[in-house]
Amino acid sequence: MHRYYADLHIHIGSAQGRAVKITASRHLTLHKVLFQDAPRKGLDIVGIVDTGSPLVSAEMEAMLTEGSLQELAGGGFLANNGVLLVAGCEIETCEGIHVIIYLPDLKSIRTLQKYLHTRVKNPNLSTQAARCSTLDLINLNVLLDGIFCPAHVFTPHKGIYGCWTRRWADVLGRQSRQIKILELGLSADTDMADCIAETRPVSFLSNSDAHSSGNIGREFNLLRMQNKNFEELRLCLYKSSGRNVAANFGMDPLLGKYHRTYCNKCRRIAVEEAPILKCPVCGGTDVVMGVYDRIVSIRDYDEPHHPVGRPLYRYRVPLKDLPGVGPRTLQSLWQAFSSEIDILENAPMERIAKVGGARLAALILGMRKGRLNIQAGGGGYYGKVLKGDGEH
Ligand SMILES: [Zn+2]
Ligand SMILES: [Zn+2]
């Protein structure tokens, strides 16, 4: 069995010189993700969630013709530097939630594009609001032999638990059994999701939802698979034949921009005991509900109930977001080590200290051992890593 690092939620800014994801950096191209960002981060597998756009699939086809990409017999696309491209499509359903369908091949991508064509305003753009329900997409996914994944499930912004339902069984009925994986999102972790009973049989993914190069791999997964291809990914995510998600690596939920409830009027992030459903200062209800507050108000258990085999969730902060790491330090770290994941997970402390300084080495050691000192985020503002141990 092999172990691969994967980030399965990455957006493309532009393809064929035109915008794909409006909020993403225009410099974020498919070519750059595959040949620069993925190897620099240390990712073996990347999920591109904008392949519903004909602009993106046209670039894939051009790469296939030119030979820098090949379609695999087991599904998926292998770049000639060894990075596996998993094609996906993030869609906003009529319930206002985001789901991702991962697809095995060009044929299924084309069928999905055809399906979306009459249901979205501009098929070239990603994550468009589509005139179809979550149930429609669950059924479509079965037809396409894809992998269905609700995205960033707890976020107040378009998450299935965050803004639609307390229990997916309530709204999806028997078809809720088709949900075999979910994406935690930046403001949630395994402990939080395991406070809800119906997530028990489901595999958790920790993905970056990157809209820029720098954020690729800010969350990632360690996958145990026999080989790099789509069918192996399916076995892994469905916990079949000895394959599984071996570990999740992600931001401390405190760092997420929706961790605690935020009052739009007072511009204040709640610090009071959760759940905070209205502002404790002005009493107003014009608040952005925090992911943590939402989970506390809908959970089945006060403490996480981890099912057997649930992998560990390890808190990680991208190098660029650590205090004291500027562009110059980043450059020398990238030059000295094989990848960022190598620095975060494996590199000996002495070597990191030599290149990046003793303080950085201490922060990385702290991260490998547990949690860093963090100021919580909320209301669209990210939390911050604080310098030192509690002194600030
Ligand atoms: Zn989304
Ligand atoms: Zn997204």
Describe the fold and architecture.
By secondary structure, the protein is α+β, with helices and mostly antiparallel strands. The chain has a domain at 2-151 and 209-250: TIM Barrel (Alpha-Beta Barrel). Helix content is 29%, strand content 19%. It contains 13 helices and 19 strands. It has helices spanning 30-41, 54-66, 106-117, 134-144, 160-164, 168-172, 190-193, 230-237, 291-298, 327-336, 340-345, 349-356, 358-369; strands spanning 2-10, 14-15, 18-19, 45-48, 69-71, 77-79, 84-92, 98-103, 147-150, 181-183, 203-205, 220-225, 244-250, 262-263, 268-269, 287-288, 312-315, 374-375, 384-385. The strands form five sheets. Strands 1, 4, 5, 6, 7, 8, 9, 12, 13 and 17 form a ten-stranded mixed beta sheet that branches. A three-stranded antiparallel beta sheet has the order 15-14-16, with no helix packed on it. A hairpin with an 8-residue loop joins β18 (374-375) and β19. α12 packs across α13. The longest helix is centred in the N-terminal third of the chain and has 13 residues, at 54-66.
